Each structure stands twice: as structure tokens, then as C-alpha cells.
């Protein structure tokens, strides 16, 4: 019995020593690793160039769909807002453009063409020079990353964690911010058609869009998506059963809604998109960071299984 008790005491002492090492050394190593990763993620939301490094970097991307050529356009990314292009003439290809004087990348609808299915009429439009449209998803994701970095860096480098519960609390707070950042990019907001019509985005273009056209722009994973809804008015004597559509990321033809004194139906939907590589980088950094946080939590929790009480 005495030998068994001695073995148990020795085992407990070894586990306590390992736990102290975990709190004093490994936790800080993981925190430094998380800081480095999230700073890289933060850089994806900022611009790599400065005003002294010469012309801004430009990359060409196609804003379109493999299934249709009804909509074609030019995309320039400049900060977190859609605005008019700085190029005086339309470019032959969509552009993903970095501007050194801005803080974060912003998509610009520089040049969009829509071929109307009914009569093959070609509509050409771009953002008005005096207008911008904030992409709240990008702005929110960046803010959550900034908050996660703050949580990791607001302690002095010599600070020593005293309990495992303190580490778990920090990891939970960081993971909450990272999950929110990731969700803002992976989960576009669902909007009703009246909400899209009331958003004001449709009125940001020059020349003005026809009254039977709605536009929505959103981020989905690593893509910026542009959706155009063509509408037709339902006649008062229409025999169709009017059922207003609810909220959705992408509405289908046949969706109905009421706007003002009119009842309208979606006749055609055109969706085009452009892959934004740095969004994919940011999502990877979020995933890796969340895994590191969970691994540290798991290591902390393992020690609690050796005791009937929590020594931390």
C-alpha cells in the first residue's frame, strides 16, 4: 500500500511539473504562433504596397460565369467599398487592383454589361464617381481579426498564466472572434427582395439602371458575387397566386414581392463572381488558428482528467 501511494504521489508531482511547464512555456509559444498567423491574416485585409513603391500592383480576373455570358464586367478591388474606377477608360478585362493609399481592399464595379434576354438589348453601366458601397462583410471580418490580435497581445511579454482556466477563457474569447470573422465571409446575409430594393445599391450606377432591375453584391467564401434580378410587374388581374418570397442569399426566377404599389416577379437571375485569392488565404489562416486554439484547450483539459478536482 505504501509503495502504491508513493507511486501515486510521484505521478502527481510529475503531472504537476508538466502542467507548470505547459502554463509557463508552451502556452506562450502557442500565443506567439497565433499572433504571427493572425498578423498574416490581417495583412490580407491591408495593402502590401506603399506610396513610395511605385505603381500599384494589378491582377486580371474574369467577373463572369461558366454557364452564361449574359453579364460581363470589370472588377477593381479598392478598400472595403464599391466605388467608381480610377481608370479613365474601360479596361478589356476585369481588374483586381491594389491602391497603396487605401487601408484595405475594395471591389469596384468598373464596367458591367448586361444582355437583356427579351430583346438582346445590351445595357452598359458602372458605379457613379461620387458613390461608394461598403462591403460590410469584409469590414466586419477585418474588425474581428483585429480584436483577436488585441486579445493575444494585451498582456506584457513577461506575464505568467496562473491557472488553466485563465488560458481556457482566453482561448474561448479568441476563438469567438475568429469564428465570427470566418462566418462573415462564409455566410452571406439573407435578404428579402424588398430589402435589396431598399438597400440603395441599385441607385449607385450611371447611367441609372432600369426600374425592372435589382442588383446585389456579397462575399461568399473566397468570391465576390454580383447578382442581377430582372423583374416584371404582375397585372392586377393576374391569376397567379401571389406569395411574397422570404429572405434568401440568392432568389430564384418566380420569386414574388411587393414594392410600393406594385407586385413584382423575378423573371431572370444572373449571377457572376470573381475569386479573390487573399480571401482564401484569410480563411485558411482562420482555420489554422482555430485548430491551434482548440489543441491548446485540449492539452489544458487533459490534466483535469487525472484529478477528481480541478487544480487550475
UniProtKB/TrEMBL annotation:
GO terms for cellular component: nuclear envelope; RAVE complex; synaptic vesicle. One of its GO terms (biological process) is locomotion. It is found in: Cytoplasmic vesicle, Secretory vesicle, Synaptic vesicle. It holds the Pfam family Rogdi_lz. Belongs to the rogdi family. This is Protein rogdi homolog. It comes from Loxodonta africana.
